[in-house]
Design goal:
Layout: E1 15-18, H1 22-33, E2 38-41, H2 45-48, E3 57-58, H3 62-66, E4 71-74, H4 79-89, E5 98-101, H5 107-120, E6 123-126, E7 129-130, H6 133-138, E8 141-146, H7 152-162, E9 163-170, H8 175-204, H9 208-215, H10 223-234, H11 243-260, H12 265-282
Helix pairs in contact: 4-5, 8-10, 8-11, 8-12, 11-12
Length: 308
């Protein structure tokens, strides 16, 4: 087994990755391929352990992970998880470290985390990512970033390793999160539209593959339609983005909409579908498992008749 040196050199900042679930592990592997030293921590160590064979130093505590790091990358589930992890890491932090906060945590939590960072002397970058498992593993995410422009040079090697594109939104923490909530509104409504089309096709006795062929190459076609439909038709709901996480994001979007005086009927309906699918045991599956919310009367594990 090999472990990475955590010593940084010019252009090779040492990175602490806190949270190695679907997104965090993928980003950690992308950082390692780029030659950056990585210390990885996860509350459940078993999820971080496979990164050791890729060259990461896997540690037992968040405190150990951030010691000596130039950049701290958090890829956790939600605001409370990030806040708890920051508290646990505090003894190992030093003023001037750059904190790249990539989790989608909503507006209130982002403001709270920015204040916590200031109290600890950290340079806070609000940096949610757009993408799922495969882009995270391939280093082709889109990263939305807001925060001090003076930190750009320090984090550039990290951003280039994990993403194919960085969108700098502004100097104010929270600006990137606002953009991410808008982007996730598109994704959440789109995935539920795919699910409902498959539901209706099945209900009407339409072969879903005929529907997909009818859309192919036209102005309404999208690779997302085919990828998510294929997941349902093959029964492979391995999560690239878990349904329970999509539900969390839908709730954050609805909270932000309420605060801003906007009514989002489609997101509200999507959240209800996610709730039903999660209650039926699909929370850990890919978010296209919202399909099952429209076919609640079917037996578990059944697939559309056209799946073959």
């Amino acid at each position: 087994m090999t472990t990475a040196s955590t010593a940084a050199t010019p252009g090779r900042p040492a990175v602490a990755v806190l949270g190695t679930g679907i997104m965090g592990s993928g980003m950690a592997r992308s950082l390692l391929r780029a030659g950056l030293p990585v210390r990885a921590w996860n509350r459940t160590r078993a999820k971080a352990a496979p990164l050791a064979t890729a060259g990461a130093a896997v540690v037992d505590t968040a405190h150990e992970a951030v010691l000596g790091a130039d950049v701290i990358l958090t890829a956790l589930d939600d605001g409370p998880s990030v806040a708890r992890t920051l508290t646990a890491a505090a003894p190992g932090l030093r003023p001037g470290q750059v904190w790249l906060q990539s989790a989608t945590v909503g507006l209130d939590a982002t403001a709270d985390l920015a204040l916590r960072a200031a109290d600890l002397g950290l340079v806070y970058l609000d940096a949610p990512v757009s993408g799922t498992r495969q882009p995270a593993e391939q280093g082709t995410l889109t990263v939305f970033v807001s925060g001090p422009s003076t930190a750009r040079t320090a984090v550039l090697p990290v951003l280039e390793a994990i993403g194919q594109r960085t969108v700098w939104v502004g100097e104010e923490p929270g600006a990137a999160t606002r953009l991410k909530l808008v982007a996730n509104t598109w994704v959440i409504n789109l995935v539920n539209s795919v699910a409902e089309c498959l539901n209706l096709a099945e209900g009407l006795g339409v072969d879903p593959r005929v529907f997909l062929e009818a859309m192919a190459g036209g102005p309404l076609d999208t690779p997302y339609l085919h990828a998510k439909s294929s997941a349902v038709l093959t029964g492979d709901l391995t999560p690239s983005f878990a349904l329970s996480t999509a539900l969390k994001d839908a709730r954050l979007i609805l909270d932000a909409a309420e605060t801003s005086g906007v009514t989002l009927d489609l997101v509200a309906a999507s959240a209800e579908r996610f709730v039903r699918a999660e209650a039926a045991g699909h929370g850990g599956e890919d978010m296209i498992a919202t399909y099952w919310a429209g076919r609640a009367e079917r037996s578990e594990g059944a697939r559309p008749a056209a799946a073959g």
